[in-house]
Every structure is written in structure tokens, then in C-alpha cells.
Amino acid sequence: MKPVRNVYVCLQACFFVVCLLVMGASYGDARSLYRQPVILDTDIGNSTDDLYAMDLLYKMARRGEVDIKGIVVDRQGDGFADLADIMNTYYGFPDIPIGVERQGVVNSTIHIDYRMLDDLKNADGSKMFARTDTNLQDNLDGYKLYRKLLAESKDHSVKIIGIGFVSSLVQLLESGPDEYSDLPGRELVRRKVDSFYFMATKLGKNADPGYNLRFDIPLSRRFLTEWPWEVKVYLSPSPVGGAIEYPVEMVMQDLANEEKHPILQVYRNKDCNTGQKMWDFLCVVNAVKPEVFAYSPTGFVSLDEAGQICFTKDKQGNYVYQLAGNKKWNDKMLAFLRFYGK
């Protein structure tokens, strides 16, 4: 009976994906006329879930659901922003601007370093993955790209998806007027940003700030203090995505017919059996299809000097967090990740 049950679960999950697609299409002409402006802020180059978040975002852009205004690579160091250019080029969005972090978090753990993607060659010696932006040293700092993109945007229109560190965001919040806007950074965020979707924290009994906040507690505290309370923050706690596992064998099977896919090449060249879960893509889903989630009451988030994080319920608060789903929900979300756009 086990194979029959597996088929049934798969059919259920596929039906869920179809429902989400139809749900999106049901907005009709309004959806086709409006693409949600988003900026992705990623620490790409550390774990594979960043790649899946980007994969999903590009597919949503192809469907006309989002307009990717820019990508901020918040991981400091050589080769990380190059990965964003590889992804932009591979998925057919070579003109998406990339911001580079030059004053970021240092000495953070790298679980899976896949910067070797830029060095892979075809049998004839040519580069496996084409590049577009090959002079990244000339690119704007991440916070400067934020200022430029937000200044060009309509008020309260941009959704920021944060699946990395907050270094570029803190620099944005603390920035002053410049050639792009007369507004200081905090006011620019208050005026232009609709909401922020952030993969961070483990709330509850064993509260922990999580990977994206842990490596620089003073910096993270500055972010929590300076973020405008008028702009809502949707947290994706690590236990929610931590329950969604995409086994290596399943990944290899799903991408078997796409030999030169960057994600497949990462899995072929690196050991991805490192406990990686599908954390980051939930922020993308949250920003575009919020109806999929159940949320906590509103409240405030604080982080003390010792790194203890606390969520306090308050009707006046601007933070909510995703609630964990059951196994059925987890299976459906994995199916959404696997089959969306195919």
C-alpha cells in the first residue's frame, strides 16, 4: 500500500500547486497589469535554499507576478555577487541590477561554498554558465542600490525579501540624502517600502536569533531598533522551513533532464547532505501569495546584547511571524517548490 499512498500524496500536492496557479490567475486583468515590485536581499553562496528562492522568484517574474527591481548580495567577499549574475543570466534576466556588500558581516559560517559554478567548463573548454555583469567591482554598494531603486519607485509599493544578513539594510536605514533622494534612509524606507519578508529567528521556548541575525548581534540590534514601525515585517522562523526537506536524491531526479542547470551542478559538485532545509523560498511565497500562511498576532521583536530574541504580542506592533504547518502542509509546500512554473 505504500506506493499507492505515495502516489496519492503526490497527486494531492500537485492539485495544491494547480490551485495556487489558478488562484493567481483569478485576479484576471488586474494581475496581468500589475507586477509586484520586489527587491531580493540574499547571502547567496552559503546554502542551496537561496538558489531555490531565486529560482521561484524568476519563475514568478516570467508569469508576470513580480517585477524584480534588483538583487542585493549581502555576503561580503569575492565571488558571491558573481553567483547572482550567473542566476540572472541563466534565467533570462541579465539586466537585473546587483548591489554588492563591502561593509558586511565577517567570519560567518559557509555551509556549502558553490562559488566554483563560475569556473565550470563545457567539454569544449567554454564556460558552462554565461555571464553578463563581469565588472562587479564597479557595481553600487548594496545600500546605494536600495536608495536608487526605492527613489525610483512609487510610494508604499516595494516588497523587500530578505534571505540573508541585514548589513545592507542597516546601511540604508542610516544613510543620508544623496544623488538619488533628498530623504534620509529611514524616511525613504518608510515612504517607499510596502513590507519586509525576512527569514530569521527561532521563536518560542528555545528562542534563537537564527543564522541571519546571530553573526553580528550589535548590527542586528541596530536593524530592529531603526526599522520604521509603520512598515510591516513578516518573519519566517527557521522551524517552519526546517520542516520542509528536499532530499538530494529528489533534487537530482527533478533536474535530471537539465544538465546545465546551476542547482544541479551545485548538487553534483558539492556535498549537499549537510542538513540543508528549504527555509528561504518561504519568504518569496509569503511576499507574493500570503494567503498560503497562517500568522501570529502582531507584536514587537527585541534582541538583547547576549543574543536572546523575544517576540512580545502588541496590537500596535509591526511584526508577525509565520506559523508552522503540519506534515500535509509541508508536503504541499515542497510540491509547490518542485513543480511551480513547470
TrEMBL record:
Molecular function (Gene Ontology), one example: hydrolase activity, hydrolyzing N-glycosyl compounds
Alphabetically ordered keywords of this record: Hydrolase
Record Gene3D superfamilies: Ribonucleoside hydrolase-like
InterPro entries according to UniProt: Ribo_hydro-like
Domain of life of the native organism: Bacteria
PANTHER family per the UniProt record, alphabetical: INOSINE_URIDINE-PREFERRING NUCLEOSIDE HYDROLASE DOMAIN-CONTAINING PROTEIN (PTHR43264:SF1), PTHR43264
Name this polypeptide is given: Inosine-uridine preferring nucleoside hydrolase
